[in-house]
């Protein structure tokens, strides 16, 4: 028998030219066994986590039996024996030649520092299976293999442990890891206003485009449209003091940080109705977790990193209104006092997957810095809103949301089973917290089990922020009584007035609360008019019912609803898996409803 090793190397030239792909085939001679039948074999690469990936050879698994070959990507059987001396020499020389070529390619990338196409650690976006499964391997295609899946869950639960204390990095270590960000954002903000803002000296030319290099505008058509409006009025908002120009910069006063498929979009849409709440143009800029590391789409690897200035540009429109408030205050007639800015990226609470590429691994597989460490160093008084739901239903909704082909309840069951096996395999070597933050495991799992482990992330957030700075809500409570939920949010943010959407006829009118100018978008047609009216003081029952009657945002698509609920066996397995995590969450929050023991589907 002969084994052909086929390597596919992608080389991206400097300057943005298209990548060159080389197919290299190596032949290794191995004595065939008489007992082997004539068939093809499928192999999977096994290894530990991304931290050990480059420290040891990868293992080749043949019918669950590991062999110490360095790497095999394709295996075929050849019945023809080639035993000539000339053939062996040719293969030997070919092997040495290919090794030399590969060495030169690696050396060139190391010397040039190019990490876009050839990462020195395995890319989490093109994984086939770098994580070894646990001891309870089972047939993933069989829904009826219930006993084996239960063994996997039992093994996972036996290794669940919660660390109450975490060693937080000091400010100097954080500044060394990102000195530019700390040089741009000052340690203190302007007094007398609620939102964190400051004046930054503007050293550029007022005739040039201040948003020309913003990477959000490069990759987003929506931001290009907004920047077109902002650049036309940019120089009007510059402040002149002692022959120096200044521009106002702001950070968010509060963040909606999680979790995905838990109602954050609906909460965001309702908060936008308040005249004192301003957001970015669209809901999720994902700067803290992805864009500042150069992640645009999870399938594309690393791009240019977004500087903090690009992130601050997103709040310019709100900053102009806050600046207008300050100017109005000096004249004795303030408008919209206490304007606050919000940011809503549902990845902020949990997504630290980029850490493995940018921070030294000195913490036994755990990230040395987390997102909240940086936010706390810059904004120790920031506030955070978390919306959660039953993690079992969240996972199914997450599966249905992403546009994969051939979705079915059976396919969901198989993906759950495979993800459980990968997570259990990680726990054989590492702690639970290491596996939750393990980039390789997270990206290898076909469904995002780890996102539903709410308590692991919440404990880490509570190590740097106080309990009073974090509001945790349940989607189930919000769906049942939106009035109560919104009152909690407004009280948490110290907001007073509420904004109500009323319906009229004859023309369509959007009332711009920030300027008080009605903008007519169409007239002469019989259609519903949207008018936003704001009230201060207590709300009548009629007005409150207008708010709560609004339809929920970002609901499940009709095609996904047709699939129906998940299989009962899948639900039972997931409930068993999430149970210890939910119990700990309910204990920390001192609210039994976070166990989700008697819950209806949403």
UniProtKB/TrEMBL annotation:
Write down the InterPro entries for this protein, in alphabetical order.
CS_Sulfotransferase (IPR052654), P-loop_NTPase (IPR027417), Sulfotransferase_dom (IPR000863)
Listed under GO biological process in this entry are: hexose biosynthetic process
Pfam families noted in UniProt: Sulfotransfer_1
Q: Name one GO molecular function term.
A: N-acetylgalactosamine 4-sulfate 6-O-sulfotransferase activity
Q: Which UniProt keywords apply?
A: Membrane, Transmembrane, Transmembrane helix
Which parts of the chain span the membrane according to its record?
Answer: 90-111
- Which portions of this protein are annotated as coiled-coil regions? none
Q: Where is the Sulfotransferase domain?
A: 255-496
Q: Which protein, by its recorded name, is this? A: Sulfotransferase domain-containing protein
What's the source species for this entry?
Gambusia affinis
Organism lineage reads as: Eukaryota, Metazoa, Chordata, Craniata, Vertebrata
